[in-house]
Amino acid sequence: MEGLAVEDETAEHGVRLTIPDYPFATDGLMLWDALKEWVTDYVNHYYPNAEQVKLDEELQGWWSEVRNIGHGDKKNEPWWPVLKTQDDLIEVVTTIAWVASGHHAAVNFGQYGYGGYFPNRPTTSRIKMPVEEPTEEELKEFYEDPEKTMLKTFPSKKQATKLMLTLDLLSTHSPDEEYLGENAEASWAHEPVIYAAYERFKGKLQYLEGVIDERNVDVALKNRAGAGVVKYELLKPISEPGLTGMGVPNSVSI
After folding, report:
1. Single pTM value for the model
2. 151 and 29 fall within a common domain
3. Which residue, among 34, 60, 56, has the nearest Cα to 47 in the 3D structure?
């Protein structure tokens, strides 16, 4: 993804997109901002000063475990942030929340819609590409009847059926799925500041749904509207159960 966006304080969301009509980026940046604002409100309520972040043994122990055990192979990398301030904690928590919710939803729940018809995304090839060390007979057949060669290359019916089933399972929401901005934790009702912050977060996600619907009918956005173009709904926060191609669960759920 490197090179698709550059930091720009004058641009919306603080980054300028190399491809302005990039549905994952445009919708994802709105979701990121909503998540970050919610996390900021939460962190600043419970950690009103940096000293409390540094002295919280349980918090520091959790972050040490994330780096040294959860990512032991990367524990000595120089890019790991150190939890010294509220801003450090906000960035870490927002990143984890985004990866486990919005990012995962965008790469997971659309798999059947894009790959269920296996010629779109065949997962295996039964023969080499026709230009890879072909015999004269194979090359002649390819030039005379490329469709025949293509069908030989595609997965078998049995392989394709297994693929469709797998993608269907990966892309389906369970009836008890819990989505971002859907239900607040019961304990937050006793914390007016936190409950109000969550309600603001919920409102931003409802607004995002409306923005996505509007973008998907804007014919100026060629990557998400127009004849033969699939609507981009993967980052719409709430979904019905089943195979919907939308919905952002609270965490990785497949």
Report:
1. 0.87
2. no
3. 56
